[in-house]
Each structure stands twice: as structure tokens, then as C-alpha cells.
Amino acid sequence: MHIRIITAFPEMISSYLSFSMLRKAQQEDLVSFSVWDLRDFSFDKHNQIDDKPYGGGAGMVLKPEPFFRAYDKLLQQSRLEQPQVILPTPQGKKLNHDVSTELSNLSEINFFCGHYKGIDERVREEIVTSEISIGDYVLTGGELPALVIIDSIIRHIPDVLNSYESAQSDSFTDDYLEGPIYTRPRNYQGLSVPDILLSGDHQKIDQWRQEKRLERTKNKRNDLINNKSKNNIAED
Known about the structure:
With 236 residues, the chain is an alpha/beta fold. Helices cover 39% and strands 17% of the residues.
């Protein structure tokens, strides 16, 4: 997979991509990234990329020209006839496990990061293919949401994590939350690891884990149980 991020603040993106799972994914040639500075596609000597909104109002709006010029370059480099261009925005489709899994199957993804008041509407109408929201709140720009989306995508690519099973057992993989997990030491300040996890009986351990996942989901996110029930009724 190749991922391009077009942003007015490339340093914010590049730093995060240099650590942990994302760094490993690059080292093993499972994913590659290109971070483009939006100002490189501006027209004037001052590298201006924003301006006041027509009709008045507070804030500044990112100009259309830099995005369209970046898209022209993107088309020259892409192997796809219509590249996927994602705009992180509170107005978009809510990010969830299914969305991340679907995106992880693509060979190329491009992110346009908004900032300030937003981006010129013509960019959304003519270039953006998908709008994704990470929640019903507003952030300063699209950089953090883009990184959240990228992180959620990359972990689904086989061999990125130490064991692909660790991604398959994450919360939301089957509409249940992940259950409690423990590691050494066995006893700490009077707190002990459940005996079942030390029994060596993997069938009973799996059963215990599934029971705990269901219990935790009911207690913390009962809406997931309700949604699962509705989906099962619909399928029947």
C-alpha cells in the first residue's frame, strides 16, 4: 500500500510515521508514505494557501489552487485511474472497524488535510472521493484525524503486527470489546492473575475470554450487543 498525505503541516505527520508499528510497516516494505507540503503547490512567492471566505465570516479558508495542483501531480504518479482521496472531516462517514478493514484492502490512499475554517468547496466537489469523521467534534486541522485513520488501517495489513491474530482479536472485530488481559508478574500488590489463564487448558481459556468479552461489552457498550441482535434478525 502507498499512502500520500497532503498537508500544510508536514512535520506533524512525518514525526508520527517514524515510530512503532508504522515505522516497522515501512521497514518491511508493507507500506510506503509520501508527505507533501501543501505550500509547495501555491502560486505566489509568499506560499499563500489560505484566504478570507467570500460572503464574509470568521476564519480563513484553504484555497483551491494548491489542492488541484497537488492532485495533478498525484494523477501523474498514481497507477489508478481514479485515486481514492479522503478528506477527514466531522461531516464524513463515521470511522469504525469495518471502514478501516475495507480501506486496508486498497493499494493506494490519499489524504487531503484541511485546516483553519476548512477547504474551498470546489475541492470537495471535484477531487475528494470519501469524507471520513473520527467523531462528532472539531479539531484544528485534518492532520490528527488522518493519522488516526491511517493507524487504524495499517494494523489490518497482514504481517504489520507481530501476529495477525492480535488484530483479529481486537475490540470491534466481531462487535465485541476485547476482554481483560494480563502479563507477568503473576501476583502484584495482592492482585493475582486469574487461575484459568495459568491452567494450560486452551479450550477453557478461550471460553473464559469469550465470556469476559461479552460481559465487558454488555457493561461498557451494550449498544454493540443491541446492534448485533438487530443485524442477526435482519439476516434471518
